[in-house]
Amino acid sequence: MNKLFAQVVAPVARQSAERALTRVFIRDLVLDAQIGAYDHEREKPQRIRVNLDLQVELRPGPSRDQLADVVSYDTMIAAAKEIVGAGHVNLCETLAERIAERLLIDRRVKVATVRVEKLDVFAEAASIGVEIERKQV
């Protein structure tokens, strides 16, 4: 074996020994939320945008092409909708934490990144918000 071949193959061998993670995401989910710390924000729902990005450890080996083998987009969206619909929260940070906590119940989810943005707060800004990253303990 020549040196060039050894250099090309060696990194692949090291990577395969590591745990492989798959990124599963939902982009730009727009929902109405009871959110805000100010009195005027309690009068009516506000539009928010939620982005979910999960790093998931899936079963090793060949895919069986079965929904049960993956973290479902439906499950992710349902979790976000349920938490957003559960009642008033003051802060985007609180909402993001609750969503991340729910998504991390699935032990296959190793890292959850959640972004929550209010869309109609400032005329000069498309959105304001927060993004958090939480890891499985």
The CATH topology corresponds to GTP Cyclohydrolase I, domain 2
> Strand order, biggest sheet?
1-2-3-4
Oligomeric state of this protein: single chain
CATH superfamily descriptor: GTP cyclohydrolase I, C-terminal domain/NADPH-dependent 7-cyano-7-deazaguanine reductase, N-terminal domain
Instruction: Kindly name the structural category.
Output: alpha+beta
- CATH top level class name: Alpha Beta
How many strand elements?
Answer: 4
CATH architecture: 2-Layer Sandwich
Average pLDDT score:
90
Q: Helical region count?
A: 3
Can you tell me about this structure?
- Helix content is about 30%, strand content about 30%.
- The radius of gyration is 20 Å and the shape is elongated.
- The chain has 3 helices and 4 strands; from the N terminus they run αββααββ.
- A 4-stranded antiparallel sheet has the order 1-2-3-4, covered by helices on one side.
- The model is unreliable at about 10-15 (pLDDT under 50).
- α2 (about 75-85) packs antiparallel against α3.
- It has a single domain (about 20-135), classed as GTP Cyclohydrolase I, domain 2.
- With about 140 residues, the protein is of the alpha+beta class.
